[in-house]
């Protein structure tokens, strides 16, 4: 996985938008982002990570124009809306590539995390983020969950700033 500051230049969200300013692992850890690279030939290591982090369930999602048909553009647009979740978001990339953009705190800058096959990314509950495909327009990912599989985005707004999971996330940053 490669991380860098998003350039904020208007245009196709699927482009790199690389500002040329890399983001270190230390900065990612300081905002709660964890990542590993586990070759798909060594997927048994995913079970080890899942056990260590108490992930009990999993499913697979594939995002392609062919697979989503007429819903493709609307789905991509919804994924790219800034939101948070009340659970960790865990993705292991089985095929393809894309971008997870996360908000750095307290600067509110976008950090772009470029994920490719073999990357495992963990976003903490309460972090503002968004997702998009890249120009390859395809990703297949294993989604891991601590409890029952669910993906409920809560779009950023006044109510998310006082959401208990958002508040807990911000408190965790103050401790680190």
Describe this structure in words.
With 176 residues, the protein is α+β, with helices and mostly antiparallel strands. The protein has helices spanning 25-30, 44-52, 65-68, 72-79, 158-161, 164-175; strands at residues 2-6, 18-22, 34-37, 57-64, 83-84, 89-103, 110-116, 119-123, 129-133, 138-145, 154-155. The strands form 2 sheets. Strands 1, 2, 3, 4, 6, 7, 8, 9 and 10 form a 9-stranded antiparallel sheet that branches. Strands 5-11 form a two-stranded antiparallel ribbon. The radius of gyration is 16 Å and the shape is globular. The chain starts with a strand and ends with a helix.
Give the secondary structure arrangement, pairings included.
Blueprint lengths: L1 E5 L11 E5 L2 H6 L3 E4 L6 H9 L4 E8 H4 L3 H8 L3 E2 L4 E15 L6 E7 L2 E5 L5 E5 L4 E8 L8 E2 L2 H4 L2 H12 L1
Antiparallel strand pairs: 1-2, 1-7, 3-8, 4-10, 5-11, 6-7, 6-8, 6-9, 6-10
Brief account:
Helix content is 24%, strand content 38%.
What characteristics describe this protein?
11 strands, 176 residues, 9-stranded antiparallel beta sheet, alpha+beta, 6 helices, globular, 38% strand
- The outline comes out as globular
Based on helices, strands and strand pairing, what is the structural class? alpha+beta
The averaged pLDDT comes out at 95
Task: Report helical residue fraction.
Answer: 10-25%
Rg measurement, Å: 16 Å
Percent of sequence in beta strands:
35-45%
Order of helices and strands: EEHEHEHHEEEEEEEHH
How many individual helices?
A: 6
Through-space gap between termini = 23 Å
- What is the makeup of the main sheet? 9 strands, antiparallel
- Quantity of strands, as a count: 11
Uncertain residue segments: none
């Amino acid at each position: 996985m490669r991380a860098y500051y998003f350039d904020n230049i208007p245009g196709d969200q699927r482009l790199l938008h690389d500002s040329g300013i890399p983001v270190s692992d230390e900065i990612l850890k300081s905002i709660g982002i964890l990542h590993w690279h586990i070759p798909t030939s060594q997927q048994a290591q995913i079970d080890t990570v899942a056990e260590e982090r108490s992930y009990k369930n999993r499913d697979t999602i594939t995002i392609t124009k062919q697979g989503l048909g007429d819903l493709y553009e609307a789905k991509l647009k919804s994924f790219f809306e800034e939101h948070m979740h009340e659970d960790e978001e865990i993705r292991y990339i089985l095929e393809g590539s894309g971008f997870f953009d996360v908000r750095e705190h307290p600067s509110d800058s976008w950090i772009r995390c470029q994920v490719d096959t073999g990357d495992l990314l963990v976003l903490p509950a309460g972090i503002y983020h968004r997702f998009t495909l890249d120009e390859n327009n395809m990703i297949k990912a294993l989604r891991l969950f601590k409890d029952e599989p669910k993906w409920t985005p809560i779009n950023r707004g006044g109510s998310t700033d006082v959401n208990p999971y958002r508040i807990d996330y911000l408190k965790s940053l103050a401790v680190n």
